[in-house]
Amino acid sequence: MTRILVTLFLIAACRSFWQTPPAFDAASVKPNVNHEVNNEGRPRASVSATPGSLRLQNSTLSECIQWAYNIQGYQVSGPGWIENERFDIAAKAADAAPSQQLRLMLQTLLNERFKLTFHRETRQLPGYALQVAKGGPKLHESTTEGEPTMKPNRAVMVTERMTMARFAEILMQPLHSPVADLTALKGRYDFTIDISKYVTPDTGPDGMIAGLTDCLREELGLRIEARKLPLEMLVIDHAEKTPSQ
Q1: Whose CB among 89, 128, 174, 216 lies 3.0–4.6 Å from 56's, allowing a Cys bridge?
Q2: Sign of CA dihedral 198, 204, 207, 212
Q3: Are 80 and 209 in contact, with CB atoms under 8 Å apart?
Q4: Pairing of β 86-92 and β 26-31
Q5: Per-residue pLDDT of the chain (245 residues; tens, 9 = 90+)
């Protein structure tokens, strides 16, 4: 009996060792030399993921890495060209692979076409901590099921089933810095905030941060505090500037 168990264990170990990483059935990776731009004249990148299909257009290698590993831009460190050179990627899986599987397949594709290698390390970076303000939170528990949603309408943001972890990610855009959820609030919440009560279109960056701070405190019972955060980084060791076909 013991010998049979050992044999089964060795067979399973060998299968695990030789298992190939998930990969697309077909994929095209091409440099994008005609950059599309937005209304501000900045390059416009897009990601379209449907079951079994993935398309990244006008995307930098850094943006491709961010989607593949589900991380933020500040977590990728490497040569300057990974933020400037742009690529078009079109890939299809053999079946209706879900988003998480597509991310793994893109990891394999980046390793194959760009010869991408990296290591991970933790660095102390400036950012913000999202916390509960004095007096406690002013949040309403959601009573509906589903994914978190956000419906911006100019200066008004209507959210449903929002977690504080996801809200911290959303705050990264206006703050232009990483935001860590330190509220210890584990629920899902419905709320609406109107930033126009606290800032004007002419408000500068410092005034915008002050206005957002007041908005969060008055309307949600939350606060943000500038501090150094220990953040995991993906540091590029090597990447080819010209992808192989």
Answers
A1: 89
A2: positive
A3: no
A4: antiparallel
A5: 566 555 555 555 445 444 678 999 999 999 998 766 655 556 778 899 999 999 999 999 999 999 999 988 889 999 999 999 999 999 999 999 999 999 999 999 999 999 999 999 999 999 999 999 999 999 999 998 888 888 877 778 899 999 999 999 889 888 888 999 999 999 999 999 988 889 887 888 888 889 999 999 999 999 999 999 998 999 999 999 999 87
**For residue 106, how far is the Cα from the chain centroid?**
15
Q: Which two tokens stand for residue 79?
A: 């040569």
Inter-residue contact 130 to 179 (CB < 8 Å): yes
Q: Which helix (H) or strand (E) segment is 102 a member of?
A: helix 99-114
Q: Which residues neighbour 58 within 8 Å (Cβ) at sequence distance 6 or greater?
A: 32, 35, 36, 43, 44, 45, 46, 86, 88
The residue among 187, 135, 183 whose CA lies nearest residue 160 is 187
What is the token pair recorded at 186? Answer: 């584990």
Q: What are phi and psi of 117, to 5 degrees?
A: -135, 150
Question: What is the number of other CB atoms lying within 10 angstroms of the CB of residue 191?
Answer: 18
CB-based burial of residue 139 (10 Å sphere; 0-12 exposed, 13-18 middle, 19+ buried)?
buried
What's the length of the chain? 245
